[in-house]
Structure formats: C-alpha cells, structure tokens
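the two lines:
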Amino acid sequence: MNAAVRILEQLGKLDRRLIYALVFLATAIPLILNIKLPMPVSPEVKSAFEAVDRLKPGDVILISTDYGPSSAPETQPMLEAILSHAFKKNVKVLLMTHWRFEGLIMGIEGIDKVAKKYHKEYGKDYLVLGYRPGGTAVMIGMAEDFRNIFSTDNAGKPLDSYPIYKEIAGDDGVLNYKDIDLLVGLEAGSIGNFWIMIVNARYKVPMIMGTTAVITPEFFAFYQSGQIEGLLGGLKGAADYETLLGVVGFASKGMVSQFSVHVLIILLILLGNLSDIARRFRG
Amino acid sequence: MQTTLPVLLTFIMGTFMILMFFMPQFANAESLATRWTTIVWGFALLLGIDSLILGHLRKIRKGGAQSIHSWGLIIAFFATLLWGFFAWWKYGNPFAPQSSFLWMFRYVYLPLDATMFALLAFFIASAAYRAFRARSMESTLLLIAATIVMMGRVPLGGAVFVAFFVAFMLMIGTYMLYESTRYTGFDRFIRIIIGLLFIGVLIPLMNPSYAKSFANFIPGFADWVMQVPNTAGQRGIALGLLLGGIAFSLRVLFGIERGYLR
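prediction for all of em together
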C-alpha cells in the first residue's frame, strides 16, 4: 500500500511540458485521423435550426459576426452551417459586424466560401454591410434606416445601388429591421446581450444566437424566456447544427478533439486530487 | 465651471436619451444622437491608441529588460499603420481583395490572435491539474458538475463518465475497506459498511442495459444542469448587474459619480 501511495504522490508532480504535450496530442490526433462520432442534438440547437428552416425563399437574415480569430474555431463553423442552410433555402443574407473589426474578415471569409459553393452572387443574393464601431448606437441607428449607419457596403458602393437592396427594401426604399425576418448573432463578447435587449425587445426582430462555450451559460435565460428562438453553444452547438443539416464539417470533427481533451483534463484533475490525498495520507 | 459644464452636459444628454427610448415620435432625434455616438466611439479609439503608445514610450524611456516588449509593440504598431496607409493609397482600401495589407492581416495577425487564445487550453490543463482540489463541499460540487457537463456535451461522454464513475466508486470503496483494518469495533464496522456501499452501488451497472441507460442519461442531465441550476444562477447575476448598472447610471446622471471626469 505504501508503494502505491508513493507512486500516487509522484504522479502529482508531472512536468508541465509533459501536460502541454499531452494536450497537443489529444487535440491533434483526432483531427489528423478525421474521425466523426455520433452525438445527441441539444434542444436549443434544434430550435435554432427550425427557426432558419421556417424561412421562405426571398426572406432575409441579418448575420452579425461579433467575434475574432481567437473564437473562430467555435463560431466560424456556426456561420458556415447557418449560411449553407440559408443559401440552400434561397434566403437573402446581410452580413455586418460592430464588435471587433476582425469579425468582418472572418465573416467575409465564411460567406465567400459558402456563397461560392451554392453559386450565390454578391449584391444579388447577399451583401456585406461592413464594420461600424458603436455598439448599441449602431443598433438603434439601424432601426430607422440601415443607411444611417452603413451608407455604403464594405466595398464602398452605396447600399441602394445593389439589386438585393431594392428587392429587400421594397417600395418605400428604406431598409430597416422591419425587413429582417431573422437576426443571427454570432457572439464572443457582451454585444449579444444588447442585440437581445435592444433589437429583439424593442423592434421585435426574431433572433437566434451562436455563442462561444464560455459565454453560453448566460444566454440560456434568454432562450428559456423565448427572447431568442434558438441557441448554438460552443463547438457542440455548431456540431449539432451540422448534424441537423446532414453535413460533416469542422465542428463535427473538432468534437472528437474536444472529447479527448475533456477526458484528459478530467483525468489530470483526478490524478492531482489522488496525489493530494496520498500526500495527506502519509502526513 | 470645469466640472459643472460636463456634469450638466451629461445630465442633459442622458435624460434626452432616456426620453427618446420611450418616445417613438422622436426617432429621428434619437437616430441623430446615435450617429454622434458612433463618431465619439471613433475618437475614443484614437484616445485608446494615444494612451497605449504613451504608456509604452514611458516604459522604453525607463529602460530595463521588459522594455524590449514595448519596443516590439511600438515597431509593430507603426509598421502596421504605415502598411495600412500604403495599401490605402495603392488599392483605394487597405482591405481590398488584392491588398498586401489584407494578406498580412489574414496570414500574420489572425493566426497570432488565434494562437494567443489557443495557448489557454494548455495553461488551463496544467492549472487544473495543479490547483483544482476537492477539499471542500463547494469545490467537490463544482468538480462533479464540471465533470458531468464536460462529459455530457461531447460524443461518447456518457460512456466515459460511467467508466470514471465506476473507477471513482471502486477507489473510495477500496480505500474505506483498507482504512477499516486500522480500526476496531464500531469504527471498523462503519467503514466496512461504507466501503461495501460504494462498491455495491456498482452491482446494477454490471448489467450492460443498465450501464447503457446510465450512459445515455448523462447528456440529458448535462443539459438539465445548464438549463436549470446554471440559468437560475445566471439570472441572479444578470439581475444584480443590471440593478447595479441602473444605480450607477443614475449616480452619473445626477453628478454624484464623477470618476469619468478625471
């Protein structure tokens, strides 16, 4: 028994470089092996999927990519899955960001990639509004007319010069929240709260959200109250959406890495605790 | 006058914005005010840059081993700025598809930003191993909840959780039985009973269908943890934050809180 206690004590002194190497291997090996494992779909993701699925051809979704490259592994697959779903249904897409400028670049990368796959045309099927700082001011400013905030698109051309604008804005020639059928907030920070508190609460725009796993817990309250119709939380949310869509994307493959890293971290915590108990046991 | 005017201006603009929120007939005025706000945000970014640069210039002037980092920041900042201006002049927009600045942004800045965040996974694993100890009731509950949620939200997590559960119960049961050999009488008896109870709980799991049901139960239970206890706590935090925010805003509006003027 004493030998076992000594071994346990020693296991509590693993070199941190060994831990780093284990985390690296646990992340990289499943990605290299390209494995996909089945997983039950969360109800909140199913609701989000149904909200997009209810849209009819010609309906409009506004996507806000409020994240940067640091959270892209979680949110970028969400963007691509939702865009695939929307383009499959011939829904018009407007894309913007107002949290970090990098969100615009991530958004453009995602929308260009998916639009190419579904043969969608810029200015006719989708439009990139661009980046404007200002948080809630941007949201309120867009309520009257999007051109108050985005006088031109990201390429510098007036919004109303595009066919998609004329189609969405209709006879009055004004594009605002009344023309939006679904708002998709892909969030890595606090901006998501304001989309709900201002645009959903005040202008009654239906919303779904995709958030990083770190901030997902705070959005469950909005999902339960019905303020958001669905919620994609972290990589699991993106993987669930891909499952519902019937595609195997980065999120589905990444979940296997997440599984192995979670198991590794729990094992390390157990090992640390056992070693601590052994140390105390020996006095 | 130096403080009275800003406080008065804050009061007028704050009250104006509150009234605008509840009066849709003044939507145009509100829209105009929000356009001003986006301009002020732009200047706030400039102020931030000014503060960052001055702070690092001070560090360089002080010298020392750490000043190398400040040099790095200053050089990278001005190189990026000049590159951006050059791309603006050459392509009309620094982020034009053919712009070299966009190339730098995509292949230098974005990977660096992603790498900084990815390092967290390594540090979290190491820190959890060293510091996450179940020494109190609260930390044990946190550990159990974390294990359920972490396992419940990954594929095969339920099955692995069952394996962890079996190992944990066997370990505690064996430990209690071993401990009983050091005691006599009632103390020994109670330890044997507890040890057997921990091991006995595992008997139903020897039936594969029960073990499978238990494994299938974990993802649903993880969802329940997220949707019920977690949401209850989050609601409390949100209410506290918002009430605090309202109180703080009123203090600013009435000029009681003047920290922002310093």
